[in-house]
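Researcher: Go.
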Amino acid sequence: MTETAVTPPSERAVRKATPGEARAPRRSGRRRIALPYLLLLPALLLELLVHLVPMLMGITMSFRELTQFYIRNWSEAPWSGLDNYTVAIDFDAPVGQALLKSFVTTCGFTVLSVGLCWLLGTAAAIFLQENFRGRGILRTLFLVPYALPVYAAVITWAFMFQRDNGLINHVLHDQLGIGDSPAFWLIGDNSFWALLVVSVWKGWPFAFLTVMAGLQNIPRDMYEAAALDGAGVWKQIRHITQPSLRSVNQVLVLVLFLWTFNDFNTPFVLFGKAAPEAADLISLHIYQSSFQTWNFGTGSAMSVLLLLFLLVVTGVYLLLTTRGRKTSDV
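Model: Structure:
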């Protein structure tokens, strides 16, 4: 038999780690914690320079009587306090009335645009979930409006909406015989519907892409089980698709709302510096109030009010959707 040597307890030596070995794990842990912040640092600096600094300057300008006489050195403009805000929200005066009308127009436009974008995008995404010949080509074609540059797409629509030479009137009036005469789409009341068409055409592919990505996470077994139980297509969409896409739709609707309510490029390129009264969105209205009348103080106050409105709406929306999600989980 072999005997195993056992070291007596009195002779056991407890090995202590050297100072360098003790500091090594701590250093690696600190580096691991600091790495995400270092990676986020460039984005934070760009956010600071591109958004936060101009926003703070705009808030400061809203408290000054900044007109064309102080453009060279705006910091010397007289301090006006809340006078610019009083002018903006005085709905009995022309400035306040025009701002309120533009705000109401923007709300109606946003509701219609977001609703149609969501409806078309969801319908197209659900339709293209099934396998059929040419599905890849259709997916590519549906994403073309989203891939096109905004200016190129809107300028093309501006040519199509021309009264005498545009494609829209050629099809509606000349080919289909709708209307006694070609319609004016870029002026008058029809300008609202022209702007809505361009906005929906430009925005619905984003909804389509988002919903299509969300549909990939729904197991096909749920649809097969529902079909075996006798559930039709509409019941499957109502009881499986929409509940599974709740979180996706919550983010999608919020993003579409913010993009549409703040949209400046589409009306500016479609109508120019002065939009028709029927399509006077608040983003373009603030631009006109600032650069047409050279009253940057009032324009800045309108921008701050718009920011506060969007912050309140976003906060309430997130609060309601979070509560609804918790209630459904319970």
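Model: The first helix runs from residue 19 to 61.
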